[in-house]
Amino acid sequence: MSGDALCGCHTSTVVSSAIAPAVPAAIGSGVPDESSAAPVETVSDAVADWVEQVGRFLGVLQVALEQSHPRDDATAEVRALSGQLPALIRQCRAQVPTPEMIRTWVKSLNGQSLEAAVGGRA
Question: What is this structure's pTM?
């Protein structure tokens, strides 16, 4: 298994290529218009994919930590932390935003109102 999946090397390429065309369109005019919908969706989808991959990685890390035990010569601090880490990771995973939440945030960052983001009304 290569480390690419774990370090996000492939993910950063996908996210960068998806965001690069969208950023100038979103920033260029400063005023959202009909054409900014496609870049917003592209950015939202790229971010949602990245969040999903991070969530999967955290799940793998959580399971690995739950199944591992500190070495006998580990300090008390390491022993205490090894017991707390799986719970902390579980809390992080429980707070992962949904793709719809991400889409709403990207639209609001792009200057679109929540009404337009939810129902297409302006």
Answer: 0.55
* 106-121 residue pLDDT tens: 888 887 654 554 555 4
Indicate the domain borders of the chain.
4-113
**Tens digit of each residue's pLDDT (9 = 90 or more) over 42-72:** 899 999 999 999 999 999 999 999 999 889 9
- Show the 3-state SS of the chain: CCCHHHHCHHHHHHHHHHHCCHHHHHHHCCCCCHHHHHHHHHHHHHHHHHHHHHHHHHHHHHHHHHHCCCCCCCCHHHHHHHHHHHHHHHHHHHCCCCHHHHHHHHHHHCCCCHHHHHHCCC
